[in-house]
Predict the structure.
Amino acid sequence: MERLVANYRTLLQQVDVGGPAQSARAKAAALTKQVLDALEGLDEESSAAEAVAKLEGRVSPALLTLAEGLMMQANGLASLTAAVEGLGGFDAQYAQIERVSAHHGDNWEVLLHGHLKADRPVMFDLTDVIELKATSEDSSVLDALAHAKAHRAMVRDFIPDRDTDGRRVDVSFATQNWQKAIRDRRRPGHFVRRHFEAMMFYYLADELRTGDVAVIGSEEYADWSEQLLPWEQVEAKLPEYLAEVGLAASGEQVPFDGRALVAQLRGRLSAAAAAADGEYPDNYELFIDPDSGVPKLKARRAEKPRRSALVLEQAIKERMPERTLLGIVARTAYWIEWWNRFGLASGNDPKLKDPFGR
C-alpha cells in the first residue's frame, strides 16, 4: 500500500503543472502550432505539388500526419489531467496522500496545520501584542516567527526560505520530520507555508514551556535568568549550602572554586558508576535487555504506605471539595470551550446543533 501511494505521488508529480509531462506537452503544442501554421491551407487531399509550392520545397507533406500525431498526443495528456481534476485537483490529491503517508512513519507533523487552522489568526495576533525574547544566544525560533509574520497575509502555498536581507532562515532547531514537511522538492528555495507556520508555533510553544523564550512582563513565562540571585548573595550562602548537601565540611571557609566543584562531582559520579557496575551481578532487579541493550528495572511490589502518608492523604481529602465527574466535564467545557475541538476527521465543522449542550 505504501509503495502504491508513493507511485501515485510520483505519477502526479510527472503530470502536474511544472512537471516533465506538462513541459513536454507545451513543447509539443508549440511545435504543432509551427507545423500547422506552415501547412495552413493544405488538407489530406492536397497534392505533393501543392505542398511543395506552399512550403517552397523545404518539407514533405508527411508533416501533416506528424502534426496530427502531436495533437493527439497533447490531447491524450489533457485527458489524464482532466481525470485528476475530476478527483478534486492536484492539491487535493497531494493533501490526501500526505494524510495517508503520515500514518506510515508516525509522521504527525504534516497533519498539525489542519488542527491549528482555526487558531492561526489568534496566535498571530497574540504575537503582535506580547513582547518575546530569547533567554539564550539562540534566537532561531523567534527569527522563524518574524519570517512567518512577514508573510502572514499571503495566501499562496509557498514562501521564500530567505529573509528580507537575503539570509537563509535557520530551521536547524527542527526535527528531520519537520525538515521534510516544510520542503517541497518541486519548489527549491521555498518553504511550504502552512507546514512552516505549524512548525514555528509548535516550537514556540515548546520554548515558552522550557524557558528558552520569555514573555516580557509575564510572571509564568518570565525570563528565568533575571530571577537569579546576584552572585554576592549566592556567595554568602554557599558555604552553608555546600555543607548541607555534603559537598563541603561544616564550617569550612575555603573560597568557592567552580572547577574544583565540577571535578568533585565528576569523581562522585565515577565512583557511583563503578559501585553500580560492581554490584550488577547481585542486583536481581536490574537487567540488560539482550535485544536492545537497554538497562531496565523490574517492577517492585508496592510496600504498605507509612502511617504519616495515610494521615497526609486524609488531610488532603478533608480540604478537597467533592466534584462529580459530570460537573468537572461541564465546568471545564464552559471555561475553556474544549467541546469545539471535537469534529470530523476532514477538518470540517461538526454538524451538531448546539454542540456545547450536546
Residues 62-86 form the longest helix (25 residues). Residues 14 and 54 are 39 Å apart (CA to CA). The radius of gyration is 34 Å. The mean pLDDT is 83.
